[in-house]
Amino acid sequence: QSALTQPASVSGSPGQSITISCTGTSSDVGGYNYVSWYQQYPGKAPKLMISEVSNRPSGVPDRFSGSKSVNTASLTISGLQAEDEADYYCSSYTSSSTLVFGGGTKLTVL
Amino acid sequence: EVQLVESGGGLVQPGGSLRLSCAASGFTFSGYWMSWVRQAPGKGLDWVANIKPDGSEKYYVDSVKGRFTISRDNAKNTLYLQMNSLRAEDTAVYYCARDRTRPNCWGQGTLVTVSS
Questions:
Q1: Residues of A with CB below 8 A from B45's CB?
Q2: Per-residue pLDDT averaged across B1-11, rounded?
Q3: A2 falls in which pLDDT band (50, 70, 90)?
Q4: Residue A66 contacts B where some CB pair is shorter than 8 Å
Q5: Are strands B92-98 and B34-39 parallel, antiparallel or unpaired?
Q6: Is A24 on the interface with B (CB under 8 A)?
Q7: Where are the beta strands (DSSP E) in A17-109?
Q8: What spatial distance separates the first Cα and last Cα of chain B, rounded to whole Å?
Q9: pLDDT tens digit sequence for A8-45
Q10: Which of A70, A102, A88 has its CA nearest to residue A12?
Q11: Nearest residue of B to residue A48 by CA position?
């Protein structure tokens, strides 16, 4: 039950695009299309931004997109805005019927 | 409106017990897998446990197996987490969340502090 691997931090300027990676194994990310991404502001509950690799729940801006290649999933935010500055977490369903999260990535909008 | 409200957190001594509750409203609680996720102060999210809609299947992270028990009362639309033999490393905000593959609705969390 090792955590998925995410970069600790990423940054970008308003209007730019950034990508956050999330690396797992064939027992989680690579084995299922149940990769999700969450946005979390300090002191707040996480918010689901992407589910099943690339699906955006209602209300999530289309600036947010997800993809997956083998054992690595990615979250891309295009047209970066100041309000996007937050922590981002990936998660994946696993072969043990559990859920595993990434360590989290702090996004800084310069 | 879909809503989850956790309660039951607090300060407990190492080795002690605590029972968390999560009251659900705004959706058919009995039709969903439910999960507990925790977040230690300043740290990332950690999945703790999940339970099938009818309560017949339960799964736990290794670090809480044998100490924590997840359960539910579908008649009361409430999810529970019984935590025994608590350790300092269990200190965290505990969130309940709907669904097991893509938690899509979260409560506000309840803080559990294990300290002497």
A1: 38, 40, 46, 89, 91, 101, 104
A2: 96
A3: confident
A4: no
A5: antiparallel
A6: no
A7: 18-23, 35-40, 47-50, 64-69, 72-77, 87-93, 99-101, 105-109
A8: 40
A9: 999 999 999 999 999 999 999 999 999 999 999 999 99
A10: A88
A11: B104
